[in-house]
Protein 1
Amino acid sequence: MPRLRFETTRDLFDAFPGAKQALLLEPNDVPSLHFLQELIEGSAVEKAVGFCAYLLPRREAVWWGCAGIKTLGVPGTPAEQAALEVAEQWVKDPEEEHRLSALRVGQASDPEKAATWLALGAGWAGGSMPLEGKSVALPPDQTAKAVRAAVLIAGAYCQPKCRIDFLKQCARDGARLAASEGKD
């Protein structure tokens, strides 16, 4: 039986109070995967994507975002490819040097590109980041926010019908990944 990171939606919103406002969803005691499935099947696919980003652990969320945007043939430019590569490098080897490399690339990249947000998601996955010679604490939901942005931006690369299909597929993939968390 999988051991989910958050068994219910209330558990998720208790851990990330800002998610309630970001996703415009109300906490309840519905099991997380059931709630996610309802969002996917309903007309709230953007909320389903956001819920996935918060539901998954940081590393898995970045991997999920990378896999999703790659299905669209994104990234298209060398800069986008570099951002995606540093995010994937951190996923494969979540060492501090890879996280900081992803952070630097993300900060130097175009904020209108999905891959930028994946690099930032990886970079923000630590407890802090360097800023003007000091270490600044990062909120624990920064990676979820960045991955959510990445997937939604990637969806904007599609035509409207393709966009909904893409976001639903990403959310389904995220649900499968969340369900597999903790299996032996």
Protein 2
Amino acid sequence: MSVDGQTSTPPSVLVVDDEPDIRMLVRVFLEKDGFEIVAEAEDGPQALERFHALAPPQTPTVVLLDNRMPGLTGLEVAEQILAEQPDQLIVLFSAHLDSAVQEKALALGIAACASKMETHRIPEIIRNAMR
């Protein structure tokens, strides 16, 4: 866990999804692959609240956002986060991922989009987005 005498820290993730089962499944896949879950949120407003509570130096490496959820969509949350912190890595994660959503996500600066059908690939998708 040390590189050149420095301790490496695992990539940290804020997981946002309104479905508890999905959050649990994502947590299992990410933790198994060496990620640290620093917080979870179940809707858009709570996602922003948790993100702000993790302000530097605990800002998450990546925010994994469901798109369809109560309060604010993932796209709306991403837009607010990226307006404040343009370099924040965000991955949009949705069961309803059509080309219009993907185009808007890329236009906002979201690093990657993933279908919930690819839940098992989330660690790989995040690592690719981190490069």
Protein 3
Amino acid sequence: MLNQMCAELAEVGRTAVASGLVQASGGNLSARLDERTFVVTGAGTWLDRLTRDDFAVVDLDGNVLSPDTKPSSEWKLHQRAYLRRPDVTAVVHVHPQHAVLLSVLRRDIRLLTLDHAYYVKSIGYTEFHPNGSVELAETAAEQLAQHNCVIMRHHGCTTVGDSIGMAYRRAMNLEEAATATYRSLLLGDNTATFPVEHFDRLHHA
């Protein structure tokens, strides 16, 4: 199970870098192993070069169970997400440019397509806190209690899901929604969004 999850996360890492969602050693990924432990990318690892040895195992009390691999400095972000959301089995933290830019400019990201409405649904925001800090982890987890996608201003985004694939789909659709919003603003539009009546049916069917 551990090796399979590491392989899935490594594939997400390669795709995320190739898609421009993150660069170099930015970002981190994790997946829940069981009710008390999760696997997370190691400190300083490049997401497009991940091997099995680049992952650490941490429990929900913050104990590192893999002595040979130090977890990402953002491990507390993942830990708090799992504590707040027992339904979540994967966490993706990347640095999407358009999503971060719009959040810094205090521009709401609008959901324009069916995929945006279905996968993103709603977006939470936090103010800037230093990476790896308890404040960042706690404020993001507070927003994750209500949203599956959270943007940390001046930093990046965190998305969660009941699978590694779902968490990553949400990250991709969040950035696509941000890019579409950015382009619509360049065209002079400030109001276009997915039809509210269909949005409600989509999530309450």
